[in-house]
Specification:
By secondary structure, the chain is α/β, with parallel strands linked by helices. It has eleven helices and nine strands. Helix content is about 40%, strand content about 15%. The strands form two sheets. The protein has a seven-stranded parallel sheet with strand order 1-9-8-5-2-3-4, with helices on both faces. A hairpin with a 2-residue loop joins strand 6 and strand 7. It is globular, with a radius of gyration of 17 Å.
Length: about 240
């Protein structure tokens, strides 16, 4: 880990905590971009990253391009999808963005292979491999947005629990050691592979909520993150986990 920012949450409601983590993340990213020459910025999806984008100041970064690192999650809550976050952040930075016109999880492995072979999709996935910085959220498949959006059914959740899945990054599921599990769902994901994420120069993880303790611990164990920005309660709970 290069850096860890713990956001004080004393006396804050859950919505205020998410906003506070978003503010701290936006401040950190703005400061980071002022010091470094970043041409490609990758972004995943989720409500905590959406708060980062909301809180980000208006700046001019015309030389930069923002790249979504994972496909879309259907037609619900589009404001937290990677394409939308890339677009909104690009507006604030007066820069360009790419669009990944594909779902995060498709119906079959064969369909996934056909889609990723299309130039419009493969070119954006290739851009994702070359980003200088990646902004990612961490998920808990049993209590997170993927379940609420209907991407994960009860049977999926039972199977994931059975094989020891504790979390996901960009809709790719991993176990308590951070190892991507062998499961049909992972074979149908259109997103930057986690082995490629490890090669990104700087991966900034934005985490809010104690339900993400296990997934955060696993991600740290697997060295997916270079920087973590996390709320105080979750950080304390993380320290208590054996």
């Amino acid at each position: 880990m290069k850096d860890a920012i713990v956001v004080s949450t004393v006396g804050l409601t859950p919505d205020m905590v998410k906003k506070a983590v978003g503010q701290a993340s936006a401040y950190y990213l703005s400061k980071y971009l002022k010091k470094r020459n970043v041409s490609q910025l990758g972004i995943s999806w989720g409500s905590t990253l959406a708060e980062l984008v909301k809180e980000y100041p208006f700046e001019r970064k015309e030389q930069m391009n923002i790249v979504p690192l994972v496909g879309g999650m259907g037609t619900q809550q589009v404001e937290i999808h990677a394409n939308q976050l890339a677009y909104e952040l690009a507006k604030k930075m007066s820069c360009t963005c790419s669009y990944l016109y594909a779902p995060a999880i498709v119906e079959t492995k064969e369909l996934k292979e056909r889609l990723v072979s299309m130039k419009e999709i493969s070119s954006v996935l290739d851009e994702g491999k070359k980003v200088d910085v990646a902004l990612i959220g961490l998920g808990n498949p049993y209590k997170g947005s993927m379940q609420k959006l209907g991407y994960l059914k009860d049977n999926d959740l039972k199977q994931l629990r059975k094989i020891g899945v504790v979390g996901d990054i960009g809709s790719r599921f991993f176990d308590e050691s951070g190892v991507v599990v062998s499961h049909p769902l992972n074979d149908k994901v259109i997103a930057l592979p986690l082995e490629q994420l490890k090669k990104v120069k700087e991966v900034i993880g934005v985490v809010e909520g104690t339900h993400k303790v296990e997934s955060t611990k696993a991600a740290l164990k697997a060295n997916y993150l270079d920087v973590i920005i996390i709320d105080e309660q979750t950080a304390l709970a993380l320290l208590e986990v054996k």
